[in-house]
Amino acid sequence: MQHNSFGDSQCPIARSLERVGECWNILILREAFLGAQRFDEFHKKLGIAPNMLSRRLRAMVEHGLLEKRPYSTRPVRHEYLLTQAGRDFRPVLWALMAWGNRYFAPEGPAVHIVNSATGVPADPLLIDRASGQPLAFPAFRVVAGPAADSHTLAVHPVWPATTPAPAPVPGTEPQPADTDADPRVPALEGCPHDQPDL
Amino acid sequence: MQHNSFGDSQCPIARSLERVGECWNILILREAFLGAQRFDEFHKKLGIAPNMLSRRLRAMVEHGLLEKRPYSTRPVRHEYLLTQAGRDFRPVLWALMAWGNRYFAPEGPAVHIVNSATGVPADPLLIDRASGQPLAFPAFRVVAGPAADSHTLAVHPVWPATTPAPAPVPGTEPQPADTDADPRVPALEGCPHDQPDL
């Protein structure tokens, strides 16, 4: 792996990727959510080489995403259970699923999220829990936080930004169905003081 | 890459990973959201080898996540702009950021999402747009969709499930702050008819 130093970065995305960024790791989490617990289950479902699976499970235990517990003492056998951190990856996985269904399932969804009681397909939307607002740019933006070091401060703006958030043009406010605004809004290209946003 | 066949899978997560699963690809998207457009910008910000960057940018253009556009004709130079599919990856990236800050930033967030107008840090929550309910298991679950083939049907339950969703135990309903239920609820371990859920 060429990105061993990701975990040293202050960026929470880079740190997360260090833990789950490899395809296999995310698919291992997917299988764990689907009920896999034992080495052989992961091996059978993913078709991953045993030594690779072993290495990845070990790393995910070290990173606190899985907990290794014995389920048999003679012979000694372990199972891998999702920790709270592992379970809390579910929204990321579901957001990824929704994105995949939106763009890479032209034949319709083969797998999707439904309301357990009604069977109605869910339409995932990321919101801010406190305000209830859709979590979309430019109403929300990424800025340096209280623990930012000089490197992070060189890359990310602090709040309040040097220029205010671009005011919506009347009649063009994003609708609830549009969870995102074009990051290439004129302000980004036209005004060098306007800071781009993650 | 050992996972060239992911894109053939019906699983929307596997298909998405085929497009963005490698760490570098997600970090390239991150830089694009931060404003990078030109090869040299991505190169400088990510410290990625030119040939590797070139290959990844090309793949992301092929997958429809970036659009390659000339910005200079003499010499010919291109810039890479997020497409709608690329921009719609933002909720995944933000969900990943929130998860990273929650578990891998013991010193506090170095980078976080704030309300652009107030500066108040956001608390990302995935909900179902139609019903407004938090998108959490077991209120929602992953089932086979209309395009499921026999392989998918062998792995994922269809709705209605063979057994109803486990009823919440009085007094243990998940609070709004708990966006997830323990997938290792007794029903999963105690009742072989209960299907695990992604």
UniProtKB/TrEMBL annotation, chains A, B:
Stored PANTHER family: TRANSCRIPTIONAL REGULATOR, MARR FAMILY, TRANSCRIPTIONAL REGULATORY PROTEIN
Name the record gives this protein: HxlR family transcriptional regulator
Residues annotated as signal peptide: none
Coiled coil segments of this chain: none
Residue ranges of the region described as Disordered: 158-198
InterPro entries to which the protein is assigned, alphabetical: HTH_HxlR, WH-like_DNA-bd_sf, WH_DNA-bd_sf
Domain HTH hxlR-type, chain residue ranges per copy: 11-108
Highest taxon in the source lineage: Bacteria
Keywords: DNA-binding, Transcription, Transcription regulation
Sequence ranges of Pro residues compositional bias: 163-173
GO terms for MF: DNA binding
